Amino acid sequence: MTGQLPFPRQHARTQRFTLGAPRGYTISPDGTRVVFIRSGDGTDRTQQLWVLDLDAGREFTAAEPRALLAGAEEELSAEERARRERTRDGSAGVVGYAVDAAVELAAFALSGRLFVSELRAGTARELPARGPVVDPRPSPDGRHVAYVAAGELRVTPADGGDGGTAGDRALVSPDGPEVTWGLAEFIAAEEMGRHRGFWWSPQSDRLLAARVDTSPVQRWWIADPAHPDRAPAEVAYPAAGTANAEVALALIGLDGSRTDVTWDHGRFPYLARVHWSPAGPPLLLVQSRDQRTQHYLTVDTETGATRTVHSEEDATWVEPFPGVPAWTPDGQLVRISDEGDVRRLFVGDRPLSAAPLHVRAVLDVGDDDVLFSASGDEMHDIGVYRARYRDGGGPDGGERVGRRPYPTVSSAVRGGRVTVLSQACLERPGTQVEVVELGADGTERPLAAIGSYAEEPQLTARPRLVRAGEREIPCAVLLPDGYAEGDGPLPVLLDPYGGPHGQRVVAAHHAYLTSQWFADQGFAVIVADGRGTPGRSPAWEKAVSRTIADVALEDQVDALQALAGQFPLDLGRVAIRGWSFGGYLAALGALRRPDVFHAAVVGAPVTDLRLYDTHYQERYLGRPDEEPAVYAANSLITDEGLSGAALPHRPMLIVHGLADDNVVVAHSLRLSSALLAAGRPHEVLPLSGVTHMTPQEQVAENLLLLQVDFLKRSLGMA
């Protein structure tokens, strides 16, 4: 137990208090079972597969990895390590699973081996398969399991056949050394939120599979300087302005047949979404390279031809959203689209939501309604809503599910009549998970609760959520525990992410634990979500187009100055820290506004924007070969990036994992070289063997301690 451990160690050992918390829910269509993942306690990294039997009112394990592996340590293939890095999952064991249509059979991989679990009985067994196995998925009828191994899409009988490998066979094999079938390419997994590469037909007789050819993509090599005896890892990385992987789809039959799916790949190279359900033909969402156009396509499963059923264009960019496109059971298209400055839910051409709701994701499509997540006037309050599309339903905003008298961060998974509702809030630690039955009349009948084994932190976060300045920038302000009015102004630490896809100001207690710990070290901590961050409006998000550096930095400065009139802030001692985009923002502050920021902790920053990937970077800045001035103006290592050379030099601690394959360490090395050439003193902390998500316990713990030491030294704090 870690009851008396200091916060940095407890925070690291519990993987930010996520271990022991349930996640990954699936509900059986008959409403009798809820399947989920949870580790044994708050420091146990090994996730187990669990079943909640609603009729019996009990939970039981359906797969215990340690028993299945006979106590052996888990060994991960390169493909599985990459998949977990893309999903930012630092745990072990059953980190993901897939089920058949009846939710009676689950499939998962352990150490590259294939396992299935009979969910009614809670028994698990290994199936013969050629490994290392990646992303196994049962057919809807539960008779087969498809998986990827060595770039092949393979299938094996779910009953194990004759106990040998005779029934295990390849459906389609790579036709080139850099071709894979059934896997999501880097861009899809890292930036589009598509982590899958194959989809079963509702009839279980064929699969829709992605063919990925990375031969056009440039190669980078990521070395581990701490182990010079090891060869560098080769990575196909599509940096801005360079070639992407070529992605195609084919219908692959269990009889060995193949029908290629056709669309205009030249105009729409990005495959953002795939949906295949009994309600209609396969649905694809494809995007143009500049991401200003996207088409919703249906696939003719006999010929592979596609037809456009809806198109969207935007002068800035279009957005793929979670859960869509999809079909309603009666064959209507479900989508989320920007209409003016409102992000709305549509069924067919009919809007089902209205301002002030800002729709974020579709969670489930039912027989007469759609379950979705959205925020309203208060961006930090993220709720689950239900909108009806039958019987004349219209844009009434929908009814909220899981009503609470206070703001929450909520999500839901639904299966038939049963819904698993997860809700976090500021008033209590962790996330509460309830199983409820949603009535047609809007009532909610509690059925059960799913317990969490996660540890409670040794501190309590006390953020004050406010809006700052003329733009009403959402902010959270945290002061030290025990601070009293009259104690005097405090050194300030800005603790943002501050960029696209990363909302920090939310109504969830655990979102502020690290910020509160920094506050308790003697700082007034500010978390500000400026323009570019999600949750407010399309215009708010798209304001960073072509000028991401100036806009993001301006909002941090404006928030700080506006809050100085409300809180005890010592504007003569201001620091900023961040990771990834937050690290980029911290470096921007130290370099371009040393009149405001007096020290910066710069973690895994993107510094040379030409070195980041196509789908992300070109969305915000265009292509570097077409708009080089835009990249120069927004990068940190150019003359424009170092334009404050005559201004005061501020202490800067640059931290980067040497094994990072998302923001490669070249970013920090180039920044360090540029700073040295400009005569700017700085410190560099390389992290051997560490990736972008820094899951190692000792690294995560000591990073917090080293940052506090650096900040106190730099700001002259005793």
With strands numbered from the N-terminus, the spatial order across the biggest sheet is 37-38-40-39-41-42-43-44
Helix content class = 10-25%
Give a quick account of the main beta sheet: strands, pairing sense, barrel closure. Answer: 8 strands, mixed
Distance between the termini: 33 Å
Summed up, the domain count is 3
By CATH, the architecture of the largest domain is named 3-Layer(aba) Sandwich
Strand segment tally = 44
Poorly predicted spans: none
Q: Structural class per helix/strand content? A: alpha+beta
Our estimate of the beta-strand percent is 25-35%
CATH topology of the largest domain: Rossmann fold
CATH superfamily of the largest domain: Alpha/Beta hydrolase fold, catalytic domain
Keywords for this structure?
718 residues, 12 helices, 8-stranded mixed sheet, alpha+beta, globular, Methylamine Dehydrogenase, Chain H, 44 strands, 5-stranded mixed sheet, single chain, Rossmann fold
Protein described:
The chain has twelve helices and 44 strands. β25 and β26 form a beta hairpin. The strands form ten sheets. An eight-stranded mixed beta sheet has the order 37-38-40-39-41-42-43-44. Strands 1, 2, 3, 4 and 5 form a five-stranded mixed beta sheet that branches. Strands 14, 15, 16, 19 and 20 form a five-stranded antiparallel beta sheet that branches. It folds into three domains: 22-173, Methylamine Dehydrogenase, Chain H (7 Propeller); 321-456, Peptidase/esterase 'gauge' domain (Methylamine Dehydrogenase, Chain H); 464-715, Alpha/Beta hydrolase fold, catalytic domain (Rossmann fold), CATH 3.40.50.1820. With 718 residues, it is of the alpha+beta class. α1 (7-13) runs antiparallel to α12 (697-715). The model has no long low-confidence stretch (mean pLDDT 94).
